[in-house]
Write a structure and sequence with these properties.
This protein has 204 residues and is mainly beta. The protein has three helices and nine strands; from the N terminus they run αββββββββααβ. It starts with 30 loop residues before the first helix and ends in an 11-residue tail after the last strand.
């Protein structure tokens, strides 16, 4: 298992623009680390209880301001894919994330749907992460603010299809229970495993 101090999580509502309010050891993730496909292995969001093989893929988009370089973009393409528990049909939800704090902020994002979902929006944040290499136990913990349709919730992301090790999962849960935020501490006891069988069939 990871040592207690190796899992550093911050409270939501505190971005890298307010370093004084963050855990001393917390650092914001790089854009290159966030990009790519992540597997949602654990969650507190009720909508994932009836889904399996949930994946989220982030891809950098051109920045919203001409002053920013492409590697400092404040926009990400966001594609969520999943299957129902009893169906092989692959569903996708497509949106765009914009950094809430502007260019250079990588842990606080506002999501807006594309197409017929353009009226939908949400706010999400990175609470913590660990980069252990492409084939290792790399993870991200994200917090989603309450919307008209969903309660506030937390997701665990794994870079590996196999998911996170049990030790890492337990360490993250323990760290959540110590975060200086009442909602996060409450959610730490509601985490469930999202079903994954690594089978993706059908069309969106």
């Amino acid at each position: 298992m990871e040592s207690e101090s190796s899992v550093i999580l911050r409270a939501p509502g505190v971005s890298q623009n307010t370093q004084d309010s963050q855990p001393e050891a917390y650092q914001s993730p790089s854009l290159s680390f966030l990009q790519g496909t992540w597997h949602v292995t654990h969650s507190t969001l009720p909508m994932w209880k009836s889904k399996r093989n949930v994946q989220i893929t982030y891809t950098a988009l051109p920045p919203s301001t001409p002053d920013a370089t492409p590697d400092q973009t404040d926009r990400l393409d966001d594609v969520v894919s999943y299957q129902g528990l009893d169906s092989d049909k692959l569903h996708t939800v497509h949106g765009v994330d914009k950094a809430s704090g502007g260019v250079g902020v990588t842990d606080v994002w506002d999501w807006r749907g594309k197409g017929w979902l353009m009226i939908a929006s949400s706010h999400w944040e990175v609470l913590g992460w660990a980069d252990k290499g492409q084939s290792q136990d790399s993870w991200v913990v994200t917090y989603f603010a309450k919307t008209l349709f969903t309660p506030a919730g937390i997701d665990f992301y794994s870079r590996r299809k196999e998911g996170l090790s049990e030790g890492t999962v337990q360490d993250i849960k323990a760290a959540l229970s110590r975060v200086d935020n009442e909602d996060v501490r409450r959610l730490s006891s509601e985490v469930f495993e999202v079903k994954t069988d690594n089978v993706t069939q059908g069309e969106a």
